[in-house]
Design goal:
The complex is a heterotrimer. Chain A is an alpha/beta fold. Chain A has helices spanning 24-33, 48-53, 73-89, 106-110, 113-122, 172-177, 192-204, 218-222, 228-237, 263-268, 283-305, and strands at residues 40-44, 65-67, 98-104, 127-132, 183-187, 209-214, 244-247, 250-253. Chain A has an eight-stranded mixed beta sheet, sandwiched between helices. Chain B is an alpha/beta fold. Chain B has two domains: 2-245, Rossmann fold, CATH 3.40.50.970; 252-387, 3-Layer(aba) Sandwich (Rossmann fold), CATH 3.40.50.920. Chain B contains 13 helices and 16 strands. In chain B, the strands form three sheets. Chain B has a seven-stranded mixed beta sheet with strand order 3-2-4-5-7-6-13, with helices on both faces. Chain B has a six-stranded mixed beta sheet with strand order 10-12-11-14-15-16, sandwiched between helices. Chain C has one domain (29-96): 2-Layer Sandwich (Alpha-Beta Plaits), CATH 3.30.70. Classes of the chains: A alpha/beta, B alpha/beta, C alpha+beta. At the A-B interface, strand 1, strand 2, helix 3 and helix 5 of A face helix 3, helix 5 and strand 9 of B.
């Protein structure tokens, strides 16, 4: 735990990037970079973050930063980690460098899941941060495995027959925890202290660590840019996005919401769920979502108390 | 002279061991498997100090290699066929990001239908990917070329990835006596890699930026220029290698071409069979010759033109099919190379050996006789001959 | 000379599109994106730094007793105004 005043004023993610006004990824980048413990390399997958921050000849990054392709952030990070090890072994390298891989939910839940699984199984020493805005935002708001049930995206549109995405969000934390890695967690940038602490914890783990951080997207979620932080706070307060960690297989709820707000409040605030309210109030879908939120919360709470 | 009995795959693994590679990230696929298996054993026995990353797919293999390469490490991977096809996207990225990775490819037919045997369709499918492409005739050449490949790739004017190709099963799995160099000779020849930049937190760089319409073209033009440097660098590296090994390499090798009327040009193991047949036919007084191309990309236009220009008929052997194209890959390149000549030889394409279909000396003799007939009459009977297929 | 010709050519550009200057995006002033600008009332500011940590563009500058806005880069998203516990930041329409 830290205080804001203790955090460094150095901005390793410089201004002048072209992320949308109010983009969660800008906030997440800055918070993450406050948690570093020493020399660090960032490996990024293709996505909003990468595209908006490195338009040649400009770059916002003030530390070594690598982008290769969409689905392989974890594989590239594996290669970098292996190279540092090998070069240190032959005496060509004498400082420890932390490796952080960053990818969106597209590059993690879907096309990137193979590379992530492989890297976790091999046990490379790196931190993987999934910047989760719940759809393929960079290519124009298409659905991903992280898109919630009922959300309107361009490939799961709310139509006359189907009210948004039929499927439910994948349990990434469960998948990563099943690999037996030491540390997996969720985070919300509205809870900056929790997120920054988790990033540092993930870096300090000797082996793989994964953080899934909820990232508000004014364009994709369709809300006013000023509400970005408020929404990812509401996501936690409604138990829609539980903030918890799995450390050495033990679940722990970090932010306990004893009196949750109804998830409807979270849904109502975003244009991507507007079709659930107008022209018809879809109580059936909203109730379904509430039920799922409750079940998920209970599941995590039960796992947390089992320790 | 130390002769060791090795298959082509084993020879590659041995050369990689001696080349003091920092990182190997690879995924097994027949017929490359022995390369990675043999290398794993070196790692397990502590014979190498390499970080061996057992990646979960070929796409991740090349991804990890790219990451390792610009961290500053010397990197190797290997694959075949479907694996090479799976990493296709990454091949362009490796060359675009100027990573001097060396890859051993045991050439195997591409599905479908699925076939695990040797033909060159896999690397031919990636011939435009910006990789330097070298074809070895046998295990000895595979060993020698792997070592030279690192030096060519890491040259400061080149900085391009290099693939060393060997025919699947024919070279990869056949035992030969390979003359290996002592470790210290290879060390001295190669030295440690001196990367142009590394991922150094004290000197932060951004790699893989987005280049819009205003910059992309310039970086591709840089790659074209780098490819143009390869021939000169390769010849220089081969000269140096001859000094330490006694074996002379270059962009191509000829046999009997000084007075040939009809010639065969090909890549890989078939050159050995063709040379053998040519020797026998020449004893009968027939003026035939063989051009074996080592360097396929960049295509050594001048040398190929010089080797073939005085010949009357050329049969170009392609161990791959380029569907819908007027000629196969190698034949198209040969035709392009010769198009500027006032008097060009008659050229016909021989597509052969697909899916590992065996090519016999009698087949090659047939082609030589056809070529001699064409040399005599000036008539090409068949522009594309499918040699060895059942009608 | 066309606009294209003013930019560096392939012979002088560093190899492989590597950007050698960290933080060069500072040369690109995103301040002109704004439709609304934040105004800080210094007397109300308690220097809690919430606006600073929540700004996506690092456009909040920490001063001794309060914060200031770096208008060169502020995109006017309004998060700072929304999150300020003392309502010390107001969003006003950008003057043309």
């Amino acid at each position: 735990m830290v205080t804001l005043k203790e955090l460094s004023t150095e901005e390793l993610f410089a201004s002048g990037h072209r992320l949308c006004a109010g983009c969660g990824e800008g906030i997440i980048n800055r918070m993450m970079l406050k948690a570093l413990r020493g020399p660090t390399v960032i490996v990024a997958a293709t996505g909003c973050n990468e595209v908006a921050s490195t338009i040649y000849p400009y770059t916002s990054w003030r530390l070594p930063w690598v982008h290769v392709a969409f689905e392989n952030a974890a594989a590239v990070a594996s290669g970098i980690e292996a190279a540092y090890k090998a070069m240190a072994r032959r005496g060509a390298w004498n400082k420890h460098v932390d490796v952080i891989a960053m990818a969106g939910d597209g590059g993690t839940y879907d096309i990137g899941i193979q590379a992530l699984s492989g890297a976790l199984e091999r046990g490379h020493d790196f931190l993987y941060i999934c910047v989760d805005n719940e759809a393929y935002m960079n290519t124009g708001i298409q659905r991903s495995g992280a898109t919630p049930h009922g959300a309107d995206t361009t490939t799961s549109p709310a139509g006359n027959v189907i009210p948004g995405k039929p499927e439910w969000k994948k349990d990434l934390i469960g998948i990563c925890a099943a690999h037996g890695v030491e540390y997996v967690a969720t985070a919300s940038p509205a809870y900056w202290n929790d997120f920054i602490t988790k990033v540092r914890k993930g870096i300090e783990v000797n082996g793989p660590a994964v953080i899934d951080v909820l990232s508000p997207c004014p364009l994709g979620w369709r809300h006013d840019s000023s509400l970005s932080i408020q929404l990812v706070r509401l996501a936690v307060e409604t138990r829609y996005f539980p903030v918890y960690e799995v450390e050495k297989g033990k679940y722990k709820l970090n932010i306990n919401i004893s009196k949750p707000k109804p998830v409807e409040e979270f849904l109502k605030a975003q244009g991507r769920f507007a079709h659930l309210f107008k022209p018809t109030y879809r109580k059936d879908v909203i109730d379904e979502i509430q039920q799922n939120v409750d079940n998920n919360w209970n599941r995590i709470q039960k796992l947390s108390t089992q320790n | 002279m130390t002769i060791v009995g090795m298959t082509g795959d084993e020879a590659v693994a041995y050369a990689v061991k001696q080349s003091k590679v920092d990182v190997v990230a690879a995924y097994p696929i027949t017929p490359q498997t022995i390369m990675v298996e043999r290398f794993s054993k070196y790692v397990a026995d502590g014979e190498v100090q390499t970080e061996y990353v057992c990646v979960e797919s070929e796409h991740s293999a090349m991804s990890a290699c790219v990451g390792s390469s610009f961290t500053g490490a010397r990197v190797f991977t290997a694959t075949s066929s479907q694996g090479l096809a799976l990493m296709h996207e990454m091949l362009y990225i490796a060359s675009g990001l100027r990573c001097p990775i060396v890859m051993g490819v045991a050439n195997r037919a591409l599905s479908a239908p699925i076939n695990i045997h040797g033909d060159q369709s896999d690397m031919m499918a990636s011939r435009d990917s910006g990789w330097v492409q070298i074809y070895a005739e046998n295990a000895q050449e595979a060993y020698d070329w792997i070592i030279q490949a690192f030096k060519i790739a890491e040259d400061k004017d080149v900085q391009l990835p290099v693939s060393v190709n060997i025919d699947g099963f024919i070279i990869s799995h056949c035992m030969e006596g390979v003359d290996v160099l002592p470790d210290d000779v290879v060390n001295k020849f190669l030295q440690t890699r001196k990367p142009l930049f590394t991922l150094d937190p004290d000197k932060p760089v951004t790699v893989g930026a987005l280049c819009f319409t205003d910059y992309y073209f310039e970086f591709k033009r840089q790659q074209v220029e780098a490819m143009r440097y390869v021939r000169g660098v390769l010849n220089s590296v081969c000269r140096e290698y001859k000094g330490v090994s006694g074996r002379k390499y270059g962009v191509l090798e000829t046999f009997g071409m000084a007075d040939a009327e009809a010639a065969i040009i090909c890549l890989g193991s078939t050159a050995g069979t063709a040379r053998d047949v040519a020797r026998r036919l020449r004893e009968q007084g027939k003026r035939v010759g063989v051009v074996k191309l080592w360097l396929y990309r960049p295509f050594p236009t001048e040398e190929v033109s010089a080797a073939l220009e005085h010949v009357k008929a050329v049969a170009v052997f392609d161990r791959a099919v380029s569907f819908g194209a007027p000629f196969g890959a190698l034949c198209s390149d040969v035709v392009s190379a010769l198009h500027g000549l006032d008097v060009s030889p008659k050229i016909f394409n021989v597509v052969y050996g697909l899916g590992g279909r065996d090519i016999q000396p009698s087949d090659i003799e047939f082609v030589f006789n056809e070529a001699l007939e064409t040399a005599r009459t000036g008539i090409v009977k068949e522009e594309t001959m499918f040699l060895g297929v059942r009608e | 000379m066309t606009a294209e010709e003013k930019k560096p050519g392939w012979k002088s550009l560093p190899m492989g599109a590597v950007v050698l200057e960290p933080g060069s995006s500072l040369k690109y002033k995103t301040g002109d994106w704004r439709a609304f600008r934040p105004l800080v009332e210094n007397e109300k500011c308690v220097n809690c730094l919430f606006c600073w940590i929540y700004c996506p563009d690092a456009a909040i500058v920490r001063k001794e007793k309060w914060v200031e806005i770096n208008y060169d880069y502020c995109k006017g998203c309004g998060i700072c105004a929304k999150e300020c516990p003392k309502e010390a930041i107001k969003m006003v329409e950008e003057q043309k």
